[in-house]
Amino acid sequence: MQRPDVLVIGGGTAALCAAISARRTGAQVLLIEQAPSGLRGGNTRHSRNLRVMHEEPTAFSSDTYPEDDFWRDLWSATGGATDPGLARLLIRRSSDVTDWLADAGVHLQPTAGGVLPASRKTAFFLGGGKTMLNALYARAGRLGVAIRYGCAARELLLQNARVEQVKIQAEGGPQTLRPLTTVACCGGAQANRQWLRTQWGEAAEGFINRGTPFATGEVLASLLQQGAVAVGDPRGAYLVAVDARSPADDGGIVTRVRCMPAGIVVDVEGRRFHDEGVDTASTRYSAWGGLLADRPRQTGYLILDARGLRAAPPSLYPPLTARTLADLAAQLEMDPDRLQASVATYNAAVRPPAEGADPADWHTIGLHPPKSRHALTLIEPPFGAYPMRPGITFTYQGIGVDAQARVRIQAGGSAENLFAAGMIMAPNIIGRGYLSGLAITIGIVFGRIAGEEAARHALG
Amino acid sequence: MRSDEALTEARCALGICNACGYCNGFCDVFEAAKRRPVLTDTDLYQLANLCHHCRNCLYACQYAPPHPFAVNVPRALARARWRSYEAYAWPDSLALLFRRNVLAAPLVALAALVAVVGGLLIAVPVEQLFARYQGPGAFYRVVPLEIMILLGALPLGWSLIAMTIGLYRFWQATRPGSASLSVDALAAGLRDTLVLRNLHGGGPGCNDLDERFSHARRWLHHGLFYGFLLCLAATVAASLYHHLLGLEAPYPLLSPPVLLGTVGGLAMAVSTAGLAYVKWRADPEPTAAETLGADYGLLALLFLVAVTGLVLLGWRASAAMGLLLAVHLGSVLGLFLLLPYSKLVHAVYRFAALLGDALDRHREPRSISADQAERERT
After folding, report:
1. What percent of chain B has pLDDT over 70?
2. Residue B374 predicted with pLDDT over 80
């Protein structure tokens, strides 16, 4: 298919939703996925849930989540760095997403099973994102979408706000496609070391890419070069604290380090640098990711005593442990005196909660930085450490789109036959921060819009 | 208890599952694994027997090959399950039957068959063996009832004792500080066993052949299990006829023993053939290749038991009855002997694992911990 009606670049949620929608609208569709079939699906592979507004309790989400609640959450998570028009469009169109998925053969996990956290804001995929991908690929294939794996788009050639050619790299070598319309759903550039280095300099060396190694950003770069409107923050990245021993790519959900409130966090010199007890909500993952990026060697250590080790949730790698802090420091190649001093200073500053207060309100007095809650002394051997680094999840630079998911052009207006959906345009809606399940919802909603619009344009 | 590669593989895979948990809607294994985070050998035996091998978690797993973590939970648990049969087999010396099951099980079945058929050929004069018999007591003119009862009762009795001891050992090992059984847990364990709740895949079914969902394997298993029960019921009905009513076999076609046996035999024959077909067509990735031979052998034996029973029914008035009876009795003998020393033993450990898990679930009423709540966010 040299000249498909609709070329979909990418293989994750947005790409599949665009391909299915375009095919259902009547277009001939070619989907090219850079990954081999066994690793297909972008970061959807690592996802689990999606955020949907709903006015009634559903089998998959408890209570209700009205439009305005969703909007307020989005506004506060992004600190207002969101396009209100697109954000409202996303929220409203999220309301029938679970029905659309069910119709496409995707199974969500009913809350009645009792093994899910109560959630009114998100619904969970039965079996996670990869099971959803399997269903969507099967549906796309059955509808007649042509799917090519191991096939990467390298460059889009735009003339007069039209995509004339798409240069691809397939197994047989480089090729040129001339699609009538193109939908770019190939995400950001977080797997591209070179890209990260230009934004973060030396610090990029310490980053671990949590997701797909195929998010290399060629299409994003090509479009930005040719005058697509840039949105978001080029230096922005959603960073999470992950185990420093994780693989360079694709470690996913299991690499997170989670129990900072149970201990203290020190840098490679053995010094504390942030209040470990202040933030026990999920936002602490990203808070610590950013903090680690600014530390020497982008590394920190969560130090626990036996109590903390018992409380720690199951982890991919076991913590490093030792009978004494000095031995632990030796394992971490850290000055033992420095670590012992940090722990001793911390222990000496710990105070119990006031009478009748929350038992979690153990805190420090006169310590900088303080530990404002959960401040238990670290005294019971063995001692343990989780080495941590920033894990990059996605980047905050994307392409501007309009309400039809058409790519906006710096010269004004939108490209005639170029659309974008998913993480490549997500920074229109999340300029910073994050809400759980939002990326998948963006992929589905804008994938559907882009697929339908692209097919309509191609079919005239 | 010796730990080995199979258990190391399972421990490694479930360790990753415990940090992930995306699959907890498919079956009970993943929540159960979280309750046993240390994953000792006996924990793994419990979890492996709780696993019904639906395979969904392989196709769902972002860490499955070609990912370098190479997580393959169904295969790892299939291997651990096989180790558990070996670990709890009684007597210990016969555990080697599991180590060499591909060879041992067919040999046992064949020996039983040869022994019964050969014994009959030697003991019964040819003209008596190939005579046509009709009317009450026809079977017993070839094989006396006492011999038939001995042929069934002795091996079955032995096997029931062996399985009971295996079950006791398994229960003792997997339930340290054994909690007392509750009626609720017993009912839940029984229900889960009889409806195979863990083969529903949380609703859409299982990845029987590949990543597509299907309910075929569950229905086939039901067909085999309930077909087997119907055949047992036929035997019980026949013995009631014999001892209470004083009526001797063969019984009329529309009598309860024959009807139960016919329906049960048909169900078993169709289901074993279907299960073998599913096994043959299935993606080999999630299965333990080294147990496939034993699985096929066992399905073949069950098929033989069912089909020889049906054929015997069809030709019971012919001169071939004597020989058909011998083949049927021989295959049943083989089946009875293999109950504790083949995959058939999974029935008792599966039930124990389901019961144990029901106890755990009932003991710890579900509460959503802060940790689970935060899992919402990635």
Report:
1. 94
2. no
